[in-house]
Amino acid sequence: MSQLRTGRPSTRRRVEPLFYAFLLPTVLLFTLAITLPAIMGVTLSFTNSVGFGEFKFIGLTNYVAAFSDPAILQAYGFTIGFAVVTVAVVNAVAFFLALGLTEKIRAKIALRAVFVLPMVISGIVIAYVFNFLFSNSVPEIATALGITSLETSMLANPNLAWLALVLVTAWQAIPATLLIYIAGILSIPSDVYEAAALDGASSWRKLASITIPLAAGYIVINVIMGFKGFMNAYDIIVGLTNGGPGTSTTSVAMSIFNGFSSGDYSYQMANATIFFLIAIVIALLQLRSTHGKATF
């Protein structure tokens, strides 16, 4: 009947039952492993549960306490600041490395392989290696050069420990971001650059008017994915500073995990729920600010 009314063949396609047969196990696993635990966690955030045994509902008590807890507020402040700075460093370095590795230079394939090596190494292994470097090698070099501010470990200095975390996290994160930027730059038609060259455009003009606008979707994706990942920073922080000196580099993920192990289960579930909602709001704001440029 729909075909007779519109005069056009129906575009609806019949879904094969086999599709649902393959989809069902994935949906079940996702529900059991992620959805149900998340619902249970949010529910328990309104209780006084310690993770087991009996509990009773206490309303918004945990949430009110979390918003007034100096330790949690400090963890949020550090985590957001760390994520913003690291995203900026990673994307700036990765983008300009991608520009170089897509030019006509010798051994660029080999160089790409070298640059992506850090992404295959465990974060905790990287953290322990750099912990040794910052605690031993860097102070010795600084002493020899007369740089007094680095003669002691950066990791023991509350004003410099965060910088060490940014450097190490960026070192591990740049390769994955680099690969996305290489793919984005290589997808730009060479004809566009040739036309710009005929018009006498300089290298900086090509970068500003062609490369960056046409790679904007890849930039947005890297920023969003990077910010989400750095907000969840945990393993490198544990291996480098373990949240110190004091609590100056304690991330939200660390405070949640430490609270679980110390018996503050429902309290930290409230913290985790707040953290989840903040992450969603930030992602939506980032997508809205791009006005659809994230599609490519």
From TrEMBL:
Residues 76-286 form the ABC transmembrane type-1 domain. One of its GO terms (biological process) is transmembrane transport. Keywords: Cell membrane, Membrane, Transmembrane, Transmembrane helix, Transport. It is a multi-pass membrane protein. Its main location: membrane. It comes from the Bacteria. InterPro entries: ABC_transporter_permease, MetI-like, MetI-like_sf. It holds the Pfam family BPD_transp_1. This is Lactose transport system permease protein LacF. It comes from Arthrobacter ulcerisalmonis. The gene is lacF_2.
